[in-house]
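User: Hi! I'm working on a homework problem where we have to compare a predicted structure to a textbook description. Could you give me the structure for the chain below?
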Amino acid sequence: MIHPTAIVDPRAELAEEVEVGPYSIIDEHVTIGKGTVIGSHVVIQGRTTIGNDCKIFQFASIGTVPQSLKYKREDTQVIMGDGNIIREYVTIHRGTLQGGGKTSLGSNNFIMAYSHIAHDCHLSNGVIMANAATLAGHIEIEDYAIIGGLTAIHQYVRVGAYAILGGATGVPMDIPPYVCAAGNRARLYGLNIVGLKRHGFSPETIRKLKKTYRIIFRSALNLKEAVAQVKKEGLDGPEVEHLIQFITSSQRGICR
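Assistant: Happy to help. Predicted structure tokens:
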């Protein structure tokens, strides 16, 4: 179902039940999965792959050249999974060779109006970006993180799973999994308890995460001592292990 005013290159690969709205433009190297709906005035360029059952609203721009002075027209790409919702005026740029050549989104992400996903960013699954949230290049967002509206995240930052960032937050360093953060320069404000409960985390898991958080961020121990104390107190489980691994592997440092 392609509107007669849309411009779709005959070499583009569109699966069954794809809809393309008025005045949209789809380039030759684009692949779109079954049941995806492209609204009006959407531009999809470059080597872009979009999965099944996505909904891309009017005036979105996906797969255009990155805003990087190092980019020299290399053949890089955008890859998007299934069930993503991309709202009005969202921009998603293809990768650069310096960042691995790929910008990627997993499945079931909700990217609200005017948000920007720069080159070489990688979003996992179930991520929510509220209106005008902005990702600089080379950012990693883990599963089910929530990025508040007007939030700006510095390049190479990671945001951990199930974390929530308040609106208008400036994020210069990594945000650990499971936490709340906010501020002109982001600070941590404890665990994202509401989010963890909504996603079905058990009371015991939440208890262990709360105690681990207190030891790492609210004690006088340095990081090495804090990790040792967590292990000494028997705070185990995959969530605690992920929190510790995320913090100890940080390259930019952790917001405190």
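For your comparison, note the following. The CA atoms of residues 92 and 246 lie 26 Å apart. The helical segments are 193-198, 203-217, 223-232, 238-248. Good luck with the assignment!
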